[in-house]
Every structure is written in C-alpha cells, then in structure tokens.
Write a structure and sequence with these properties.
TIM Barrel; signal; binds zinc ion; 10 strands; Glyco_hydro/deAcase_b/a-brl
Length: 311
C-alpha cells in the first residue's frame, strides 16, 4: 500500500513530461473483429465528398435530442453484457501530446507524441471522411439502450492534461465542430506544460467532457485501501468542483485494469471506463471500453485503416 509522497508525484509528472508513453500499447489489435476489405482510403473518401448533405442531416437528427444522462436510464432498460458486447464498436482514438518531435524523444515516445501538422491532417481526414464526433453520454445510451448515433460516429479522447491539448487540439477540433473527452490527472493541473483549472473548465463549458484519469497516474491494479480515495474519489471531486458537472467517465492509466477496480469505480459515480486496444471484459464491457492510440507515426491513411480494422 503506498502513500504517495509529493516527490513521487513530482517524479510522475517529470517522467510524464520526458516520456509520455504512459500507456502501454500503441496497438491496433482488433478484438476478433474481421478486418474487412473495407480499407477505403481516406483520400478517396475525401474526393468523393463524404461530407454530404445526407451526413449533415444525420448529425442534425442525432443532435436534436441530446443524449440522456446515464442516471436517467433505468437499470431495467439497460441491456445485458452480451447485448452490449454484440453492438458494433464505436471507434475511439486516444491522444497524448500534440507537438513536434524533439531530438531527445525516444522511438517509443513518438507513438504518444503527434506532431502538430500530422494531428491537423489526421483530424481533417476524419472530417473529410464524414466522421462525426460523439461524447460519452451518447456512447453510453447507444451501448445500454441501442440509442441512435450520428452516421460514422467516432470519439476523440485526450489523456494526461497536456497543455497542447488546449492550445493545439482544441482550436483544430473547433474548426470542424468536433467535441472531445479530456481525461485529466489532477496532480498536473496548473503545472508548466499542463492545463490549468481554468482551461479545463473552459473545455467543459464549451461542450467537451472532462473525465478522470486519477490523481497522479498510478496503476489501478496496485491500489489498496486509501488509494481509492487518493486516486479516484478526491480527484473526481476536484474535477466536479472545477467543471460544476458530475464526473462519470474514467480512463485507466496505462490502460491497465482489474476486476476489483470496477466496483470501486462504480461506487464513486463512474458509469463507464476506458482501456486501450486489448479485449473488452465479457462481464463488464462498459468498464472496459476500447480505444486505440493514434500514433505520431501515422499518416491520415494509416489512421483510417487502423480505425476500420480495430473496431
Ligand atoms: Zn495516461
């Protein structure tokens, strides 16, 4: 059982600054899903004018009725785990730092550091291909009740509170009317190169969703006793104070989880949690929702292929 002294927190932040490979797998593993021949190149999708009037109409319809708050969905109307697992997965991308590579960035770190122009190209590809961003309440309603989603739904998530998510990602997404989920580790709030509380609040006020990513990024599998309070309960409360909204979604540091974590998260108000590219849990698919890391090495075409093959 660890009590996290301040120097550990400082070390965690420093380590995260040096090497943001805080997640373990930049993988594109597919969950037994058949990588179909549908490797429609992003370029041709763009040329075909995928942002058609039809797509826009679909979005308008899906946006017309805001997604219900998960608490308003009665337990009796929530589908069982097998039904949830059987629904087609919505692609979810995970980003960390958005900045140009530096000489000291390791080969491995570059999976987690997407150069600015590359990021802009990736997001433009999504827009040109007709993807519509959705938020966790929409995903939750879809998974639990089969609620409709816009055409070509996708969810964009940003982990670790890096400042460039505010200064670079936010204006890029704004250009396309995209919204995203920001999983914040609260220890880093206000530190150099990380977002401030005011910036997190602004993201929330602008219609993005703030999720919890623990206090200082310790591995959930190692928590005991008071760790649940330090890593989940208090940071969640902090984020609720900052945003004035309930915090309902959680991303596991490093994508690592164990079955013991799920009741602990539920007890503290979480309704769903996000892993990385590994398989979902058959018993608790809502607490093991898959994401893939959009690598800094990926061209828009590679990203598109990964989306199609991984979900
Ligand atoms: Zn992280």
């Amino acid at each position: 059982m660890f009590r996290t002294p301040l120097y550990v927190a400082a070390a965690a932040v420093a380590a995260s600054t040096l090497f943001t490979a805080c997640e373990t797998k930049p993988a594109t593993a597919s969950e037994g899903g058949s990588p179909t021949a549908e490797t429609v190149a992003a370029d041709s999708a763009a040329k075909a004018g995928a942002m058609s009037g039809t797509a826009a109409t679909a979005t308008d319809e899906a946006n017309a009725a805001p997604a219900p708050d998960p608490s308003s969905i009665s337990a009796g109307s929530i589908a069982d785990a097998a039904t949830i697992t059987a629904r087609p997965q919505v692609p979810i991308l995970c980003y960390h730092q958005i900045r140009d590579w530096r000489a000291k960035d390791s080969k491995g770190a570059k999976d987690y550091i997407v150069p600015e122009q590359k990021f802009k190209d990736q997001i433009k590809m999504l827009a040109d291909s007709g993807y519509h961003t959705i938020l966790p309440d929409q995903l939750y309603a879809y998974l639990t009740t089969g609620a409709k989603l816009p055409s070509k739904p996708i969810m964009l998530t940003f982990d670790d509170t890096d400042l460039d998510q505010f200064t670079v990602a936010r204006p890029t997404l704004d250009k396309y009317g995209y919204k995203a989920v920001y999983f914040v580790m609260t220890v880093s709030l206000g530190r150099p190169n990380y977002m401030s509380k005011a910036q997190v609040k602004q993201l929330s006020d602008e219609g993005n969703v703030i999720g919890s990513h623990t206090w200082d990024h310790h591995n959930v599998k190692k928590y005991q006793g008071q760790d649940w309070v330090t890593q989940i309960e208090k940071p969640t409360k902090t984020l609720e104070e900052i945003t004035g909204k309930d915090i309902k979604y959680f991303a596991y540091p490093f994508g690592l989880w164990n079955p013991e974590a799920i009741p602990q998260l539920k007890q503290r108000g979480m309704v769903a949690a996000f892993v990385l590219a590994e398989k979902r849990d058959q018993q608790d698919p809502l607490f093991t929702i898959r994401r893939i890391i959009a690598s800094g090495y990926w061209t828009p075409r590679t990203l598109h292929n990964s989306i199609v093959q991984s979900f």
